[in-house]
Known about the structure:
With 202 residues, the chain is α/β, with parallel strands linked by helices. It has helices at 17-34, 76-89, 104-113, 118-121, 129-138, and strands spanning 4-9, 37-45, 48-56, 62-68, 93-98, 124-127, 156-157, 160-165, 170-177, 184-191. Helix 2 links the parallel strand 4 (62-68) and strand 5. Helix 2 (76-89) packs across helix 3. It starts with a strand and ends in an 11-residue tail after the last strand. The relative contact order is 0.15.
Amino acid sequence: xxxxxxxxxxxxxxxxxxxxxxxxxxxxxxxxxxxxxxxxxxxxxxxxxxxxxxxxxxxxxxxxxxxxxxxxxxxxxxxxxxxxxxxxxxxxxxxxxxxxxxxxxxxxxxxxxxxxxxxxxxxxxxxxxxxxxxxxxxxxxxxxxxxxxxxxxxxxxxxxxxxxxxxxxxxxxxxxxxxxxxxxxxxxxxxxxxxxxxxxxx
Length: 202
């Protein structure tokens, strides 16, 4: 069974916006290292601040990485700003990693951008949750939720798999549905890195 993939930064309610963003940035840095990048976090350049700065270990190419731990859609303004920084600084590429889907205007921007020649398209890499999770699975940073051990003879899983990024670890949360009413009744929790079921209530 395949799932729709979502990403949620799961932290206590009193956690600041900056701290929420840092959880995603640390996770993104780990991902970039699996892609052969050396990573510097929270870089301050003249007139701008960048979440992550990656340098490819083999080629030396430099990329900007923006991490958006949003709970609402991403606007095209974010993409325009990132592309502007890449062009102005003459970096190889800008990557957007987000926990929420693109808004209507940003989707339109992405569709237009995807019509550009391949070499030009490399300048901007857009990873909304569904695309980002596929990359994380390919990099073996997280287990494929479709392969999680769920006893479907006893439980009816929902259609979504939520990657929870917490202050200490990452988990897959799979909603459980009441087959009679179609209402969520709970969730199964698995360690994201190895797919092991979490049964400890704490």
